[in-house]
TrEMBL record:
Protein kinase domain span: 62-287
Record-linked PANTHER family: MAP/MICROTUBULE AFFINITY-REGULATING KINASE, NON-SPECIFIC SERINE_THREONINE PROTEIN KINASE
Family: Belongs to the protein kinase superfamily. CAMK Ser/Thr protein kinase family. SNF1 subfamily.
Name this protein carries in UniProt: Protein kinase domain-containing protein
GO MF annotations, alphabetized: ATP binding; protein serine/threonine kinase activity
Length: 287
């Protein structure tokens, strides 16, 4: 039988979901010996004048603005390119914190995938402009999406009308298909990892749990957010890659139309049973 490619681990720490007012948030992450959040960066309330320090040489081409969010070993700041005036988001990863969290290899894999998207440009995948590495930090300069997460947009609307849900879902599928065509599986698709630009177009982000697919090889890592995870991930079975993203896309479509996820239960074992078994559609959905 085929075996996973080098670098594919059995146990992966994944991001702990932050509280959201509606039930479409990612339920507790999958566990098989997982540690605490390793790569998540989430919005926080910050002073608008908060500035980054110690990065002047590496980021000499940018004027740093406020901090948009903090994560376990990094933060995201808004910045402006000095020459063009273009606004960007800069993800700053601290090497020392990554070593403490024993996440160096995982971070290297994420950076490798992010570098692919410097050359592979797609309208519905976050644009990566450059990756700057120093002995202390890694800086990922990315497209800035001013309208935030798709999750917050769904929460605000309650649920989306069919025409708008169709438009957004088509953009999600377009971005995911492009990833698969270039041998990248995301493995953590959920509304929190889909940003909206100034025109409310979708941008796929956060490749912290992604991996590169290889013909004839299978992946085995159980990762992602439980509500959006495919049965293969929960069962710990080998999987090719695309099928787990396709499942997550289906759950996202349900959330767009219904304002909640299809599989919910406060009891995690019961939730897992629901994901693996039978379920009912709401009467308002026409299948």
């Amino acid at each position: 039988p085929s075996v996973p490619p080098p670098g594919e681990e059995n146990d992966q720490p994944i991001d702990r979901p932050r509280p959201k007012p509606l039930s479409i948030r990612g339920r507790p992450p999958l566990h098989s010996g997982f540690g605490e959040a390793a790569h998540g960066i989430w919005p926080v309330k910050m002073d608008g004048n908060t500035r980054g320090g110690g990065h002047s040489e590496a980021l000499k081409n940018y004027n740093l603005g406020k901090t948009l969010g903090h994560g376990t070993f990094g933060k995201v700041m808004i910045a402006e390119h000095k020459l063009t005036g273009q606004k960007v988001a800069i993800k700053i990863l601290n090497r020392h914190q990554m070593e403490i969290m024993e996440m160096v290899e995982k971070a290297k894999r994420e950076i490798k995938i992010l570098r692919l998207f410097i050359d592979l440009i797609h309208p519905h995948i976050i644009r990566v402009y450059e990756v700057i590495e120093t002995p202390k930090d890694i800086f990922v300069v990315m497209e800035y999406c001013q309208n935030g997460e798709l999750l917050d947009y769904i929460v605000e609307k309650g649920r989306l009308q069919e025409d708008e849900a169709r438009r957004i879902f088509q953009q999600i599928i377009s971005g995911v298909e492009y990833c698969h065509r270039n041998m990248v599986v995301h493995r953590d698709l959920k509304p929190e990892n889909l940003l909206l630009d100034s025109k409310y177009n979708v941008k796929l982000v956060d490749f912290g749990l992604s991996n590169v697919m290889h013909d004839g090889h299978f992946l085995k890592t159980s990762c992602g957010s439980l509500n959006y995870a495919a049965p293969e991930l929960i069962s710990g079975n080998l999987y090719a890659g695309p099928e787990v993203d396709v499942w997550s896309c289906g759950v996202i479509l349900y959330a767009l139309l219904c304002g909640r996820v299809p599989f919910e239960d406060d009891n995690i074992p019961n939730l897992i049973k629901k994901i693996k078994g039978r379920f009912l559609y709401p009467s308002k959905l026409f299948i």
